[in-house]
Amino acid sequence: MMELKDSCASEGSHETESAGTGNLSGHLSWHLFAQRSTLHGLRYVFPHRRSSTLRRVLWTAALLACLGVLALEGAERIAHFLSYPHVASVGAVPATSLVFPAVTVCNLNAYRFTRLTRNDLYHAGELLALLDVHLHVPEPQLAEPHVLDFLAERANFSGFRPKPFSMREFTERVGHDLHEMMLYCRYEGQECSHRDFKTFC
Length: 201
What we know:
The protein is mostly helical. 49% of the residues lie in helices and 2% in strands.
């Protein structure tokens, strides 16, 4: 009985000693980490030897202040990155000379009515919606009097012998002439004319 109590007491004392050693080793390992850390000032907050309390408080305040500034700067830089900033640089360079521009003139009235001939009406009258398939004026009551008179004269095909018809020649002859359309042209201080333009059909 006595031996059992002694053995229990010895075991309890052994556990207490080992627990105390564990706390001491943990404390020593933390101080060792603070001494070997590259974080400047940490070894003064947790000195290996005894140090004045005022010095430790000052080093703790300085270390916390620096960590706070680091956190603020890091948060500001992250917010700046997430805003996707971009810089656009625009500069004006005066040009000494400009290429003559390409100009497209489109007239809703593609052909001049007064330039139509009897041969034109014979071949393209239906295409221009001036005549029907029987070469007659469709719905003459809707046409204006001078237009009806013109069509009645040019669309009289009695004894008419058609001639060869070219759509290109027809377009160049009956289409609008730039020489008559252009009133004034001036580019880079020099006057220009219809000769400076090319017609594409």
